[in-house]
Design brief:
By secondary structure, the protein is an alpha+beta fold. It contains six helices and 16 strands.
């Protein structure tokens, strides 16, 4: 997975001049003195690049233009971890400036199957830019690496196809698990708050407390509503009044899926409660704008009143 390392090196390439004036509040630990005290066995490959081989591999050594697949953990010299692989290995092409200089140079020293530690002076790592708050400017760093395999162009293409497939499967499973979790949480919320909820076509929970006397909205109708939107902890994220209602066209994606679906069960004049799983709201995306604060994976609840339902023919007559 091309995670922070790739992002950081791109940052170094394009914003170095803008931030190189920034300096750390503390003097960085000297790489040479650190190695002398903790890793006296470390070998010097070149100025600013040292290494220790914990386990010698017996495969080929990567060369320029090879794709390298590896596991890693990046640390500052005080032991603070600032980056690491998680579910998937990291992949990059050697010599194409996709990673920091110390990686491009360092991985070519080790055979496939090797487990090593490399120690990098700032000029081979994040230099005078640093890595945001994670790694201050002019900071030496170390990485624990395990070289898993070397790929050629066709193998890399196949690897990325399989990786994308695995990532998609994991994503869909995560969405499914979250949906089940949300449905259970909504059921418990309804039990605690004595809400006799029904389920809409897409699985939105709702209760009509007061039926209206007007028409039910259809896809394409314009609906005018007054509502209060809040989280399951009771915190309001948005509300309006009958004097300043909200208007939208049903079925055109003007509102979140859950609201577009549930509104079909509320005729003009109806009042009630709608409880929407995060899958049918904003999912993993947090919303922070114009006073609205909705954390990721939030269940959204609406107390809603339908003020008006207008069909397309009625709208045309108004024109």
């Amino acid at each position: 997975m091309k995670r922070a390392i790739l992002v950081l090196i791109l940052g170094i390439l394009f914003i170095a001049k803008a931030v190189s004036a920034h300096s750390s509040d503390q003097d960085p630990i000297s790489l040479e003195s650190f190695l002398k005290e903790h890793y006296p066995q470390a070998q010097k490959a070149e100025e600013g690049l040292y290494y220790v081989i914990d386990e010698q591999g017996n495969g080929q050594k990567p060369k320029e233009a090879d794709y390298v697949v590896l596991e890693f953990e990046g640390k500052k010299l005080d032991g603070t971890i600032f980056d690491k692989t998680d579910d998937e290995p990291f992949v990059f092409q050697v010599g194409y400036r996709q990673v920091i200089k110390g990686w491009d140079k360092g991985v070519q020293l080790f055979s496939v199957g090797s487990k090593v530690k490399i120690f990098l002076a700032p000029q081979l790592a994040y230099d005078k830019v640093g890595a945001g708050k994670l790694v201050p400017p002019d900071t030496p760093v170390m990485f624990e690496l395990e070289i898993l395999k070397i790929l050629n162009d066709s193998q890399y293409d196949q690897y990325m196809v399989e990786l994308e497939k695995r990532e998609k499967e994991k994503y869909l499973k995560k969405i499914k698990d979250q949906f089940e979790f949300d449905k259970k949480a909504i059921h418990e919320y309804c039990m605690d708050n004595k809400i006799k909820a029904k389920r809409s076509r897409l699985g939105v929970s709702y209760e009509v407390n007061k039926k209206g006397k007007g028409a039910y909205p259809k896809v394409g109708d314009r609906v005018t509503v007054q509502y209060r939107g809040y989280l399951s902890n009771g915190e309001t994220f948005e509300e309006n009044s009958e004097k300043k209602p909200f208007v939208f066209i049903v079925g055109q994606g003007r509102v979140i899926k859950g609201l577009d679906d549930a509104i079909l069960s509320f005729n003009q004049g109806a009042e009630g409660t709608i409880l929407i799983t995060s899958k049918l709201a904003y999912g993993p995306m947090p919303i922070e704008e114009k006073g609205v604060n909705i954390p990721a994976h939030s269940i959204l609840i609406f107390n809603l009143k339908v003020l008006k339902v207008e069909s397309p023919p009625a709208l045309e007559q108004k024109k």
